[in-house]
Amino acid sequence: LPDGWHPDVFDIDETNELITAATAEPIPVVEELESLLELARNRGARGLRDALTHPSASGATDISTDEGPDLTEPFRVLLDVVGDGVALTSAGYLKPAAVEQIAHRTGITEWWIGKANREDLTWPVWELRATARALGLVSVRKGRIAPTQAIAKRRDDPRAILRHITGRLPLGTTPAERHAGWMALTVVANETPAELWEASISELMLDLGWRDREDPYRAPSPQSPTLDALHLLAGAMRVHWRPRGVNTAVAAVARAVIRG
To answer: Residues 53-88, buried b or exposed e (16+ Cβ, 10 A)?
Structure first.
């Protein structure tokens, strides 16, 4: 029974809403996500179905001209610092001058404790580079990092970069990464506040049959390369990697991916 239910209280509007929610059909989604919906359905779990019938899931997928630069800021900073290509250290990291530029221009230095000049000790910069590489924005060859051919001539175009990113999501190759990635996109598409992303993703992963390896009673991990990308789009680098509230532009990106 719903929380607060009382046998002597009947709200016809609330009842109609519950009936509508129970009988609503999920929005059409891409084949891979549809297969996960079927998996959850066969397990008797309704979480993913409920998420895909939520009104927000059928919302807009358009991004305004003003929103593109904000969403892609950290990636554009990395591309600008890299330019046509720069040499990495012998250990394969960005050189200190590049790390400092990225940290300053993306807002990391506003909250980072200590010097932000070594990539191996400044994990947000490492995370940005790893995600950009996974998205096909940069590549590393023969000790140099450079924009990929797909993006080299469009690195100053936020909308082109965003289209490229949208076309590459979700990231990952293992079942765990793919499943968590699709659940992340579904949660964000529903305009879930960012501070609830991880808990909501874990719940949906549980519905798909995932468990924590060390403790079967603990919620499965929500982490995935896709979630990292969504955090970056939501401006995490400027807010201690803890975006809050609803970013409608990021939600629109997620909807564009799940609906194809």
So the answer is: bbeebebebebeeebbebbbbbbbbbbebbeeeeeb
Residue 127 one-letter amino acid: E
The predicted pLDDT at position 23 comes to 59
- Looking at residue 32, its amino acid is E
d(CA 6, CA 51): 27
Q: Would you give the DSSP letter of residue 83?
A: T
> For the chain, how many residues are written?
260
Cα four-point dihedral sign 100, 105, 110, 111: negative
pTM comes to 0.90
**78-113 tens-digit pLDDT:** 999 999 999 999 999 999 999 999 999 999 999 999
Residue tagged 């129970």 (tokens): 22
Q: Coil, helix or strand for 147?
A: strand
* Residue 244 near residue 195 (C-beta atoms within 8 A): yes
Burial class for 49, CB neighbours closer than 10 Å (0-12, 13-18, 19+):
middle
Is 67 strand, coil or helix? helix
Give the Cα separation of 226 and 253 in Å (integer): 12
Q: Give the CA angle between residues 247, 160, 35 to the nearest 5°.
A: 65
Q: Determine phi and psi for 23, rounding to 5 degrees.
A: -105, -5
Contact predicate 65/159, CB 8 Å: yes
Give SS3 for 198: helix
17 within 8 A of 9, measured Cβ to Cβ: no
Distance CA 260, CA 258 (A): 6
- β partners of residue 138: 147
* CA–CA dist 23, 92 (Å, integer): 54
Cα–Cα distance between 26 and 47 in angstroms, integer? Answer: 11
